Amino acid sequence: MTRPSHMLGLIALLMVRKCVGSPVDHIGVVGDDSGNDNGVMMDHHINQMVVVKGDFVYQVGEVVSQVVEQELAGCHLVLVDTTIQSPVFSMMIRQFGRTRESVTVVEAWRLFLLTQVVSNESVNDWHNGDRRFKDQLARDQLLHGLWGDATLTCRALIIHFDNNNKDLFFMFLEWCEVWRRPEIPVVVVGEREGVETVLLHHSLRNTIHTLYLALHDLPLHRGQRLSLNTRSRENDIIRGGDDEQVWVYRRCLYCEKGEAQVQLLHRGNLTYGLQHSVNLFPERLNNFFRHTFQLVVNQYLPFIDIELDKEPGTPVAPRDSLNTRMLHIIASSLNFTYVLRQPLDEKWGTPLDDGNWTGIVGVLQHQKADFCLDLTLTETRNRVVDHSRVYNYDPFVILSGKVSSFPRHLALTRPFEGEVWMAIIVCTSFMGVILWLLQKAWSWASGELGVSLVPTVFHTWGIMLLEPIPTLPTNSTGRVLVGWWLLTCAIIATGYRSSLIAHLSVQSKYSPINTFQDLLDRDGWSWGANELVGTNFLYFNGSSDPVIQEIYKHMEIFETEEWLERVLAGGFSFLFLKTLIKTEVAKHSTDRSGNAPYHISTTEYPIFGGNVWGFRQVTSAMFS
């Protein structure tokens, strides 16, 4: 970080001081060390100021306090002054410092003018360029101090506006990104001359609740300075006339045929304050007054269907689909209109190296549209766009041919596994050899005529096949051995017969393909998918799972529906979203009974969080 950047961050941090439950004599903003008026802390002026009930400064403070107590009770307050040591702002600090638990005080003129001197930049440079804070960390820390802890449930911005420093006012609103916090109420105290300039400014385009307390003859009071000599306090008392008036205006977001409008809520006298019957924040956002929202969409059947014969970026007409029906109902209920457009690149949205996004996500990221009708939810997308609740869960599945039965002629061998058959063959042949050796040894010992090897082995196989035994051994040892072999063969034959009957009654089938690993285990098997875009591409391209990497490496890409024929022919599986697969199968290959010659895997791969409506940041707050 450069030295100017260090100084910028340091000065900026000194400009904001968070005060939690502090007494008023500790509330202030540190100035410079030169010893002049600019270096005197704000609380010093407050302590030396004499205030009489009924004077102008006191009355203004009472009116602002009334607004806070009526609408902002329990909120963390951010007090911002765009004037130079205004007694009105000093009074607000004093009153809120004594009664509020959480207050942040900002002197915006110090925040920007002093940093301008350090960095040798003009006000226009600050307004037009992004050079205000080169150190993003320092900026984040300052904003955190400004808005308070994340656990706070309510925040409010109270700004003392000066027409002579209106550029400073708008610079502060842009700097603290009020447009990103539509739920934060903004209360402005200023002159009547600046009402429309402030309330219709682009910086407040998303703020739901904005009030402007317009005061009469405020320049006269702003120009008076308070004496630091306690003996002359009576001469410096700021008094207001009996006819001091206050006008309360609000910004209605969509009242002017769907556009912003300034409305007068109340006109009264500072002496009597505001009427409790006045609803200062009437905005409920249940009527958008025919405001036209800009929507960005891509075709994604059956959820969203649009005309595809238009140039990207031009308005497209919606066709009947799930999302368009929901949109029509919501638009009728909330009284708004809409225009649908496709993104220029016709993509859904993938991240780029510079932090930007393509497709629909990029359009919402750069605030070029209000929301989209369908978007798949991921953690990375959630950082740049807001979203609705998940209304559909659409996992990845594997489509294969219908599982077929084994050939019937193989039923003779299916009762036993291959290892069992091999053991029977070896043991039967080995048993014949043992019986022949035993008979050979007995004939040698007794001198009788021996038997040959081949007939003995055949006799052993005959016993296994339950054939009658032509001759039995003459010695007792041979007879015992044949007896045990007869018992063994009877057990094997009984097991085989019962298993054979079961296999003939219920045909066995090949194991279905339910996982990616099943695909890899099939010899000579292939698979494919439609072009992978958006979250589908991110899932396969960015996965560290070796199985998914191998699947992606050998995946075929299809642009037509020929994959249905490939799957039906056998030896091929198709991978894609469950909704699309079920739709295409039902459209092309389902009979009247609802049967289709395909198998959809029981294992589902949740490659994203579900289908949602995506919103540019802060827009979702208006529909909540």
UniProtKB/TrEMBL annotation:
According to its UniProt entry, the protein's GO biological process terms are: detection of stimulus involved in sensory perception
- The name of this protein is Glutamate receptor-like 24
Keywords, in A-Z order: Cell membrane, Glycoprotein, Ion channel, Ion transport, Ligand-gated ion channel, Membrane, Receptor, Signal, Transmembrane, Transmembrane helix, Transport
Gene coding for it = Glrk-L24
Species whose genome carries this gene: Homarus americanus
Sequence ranges assigned to domain Ionotropic glutamate receptor L-glutamate and glycine-binding in this UniProt record:
315-366
Location (main, coarse): membrane
Protein localization:
Cell membrane
Q: Which residues constitute the signal peptide according to the record?
A: 1-21
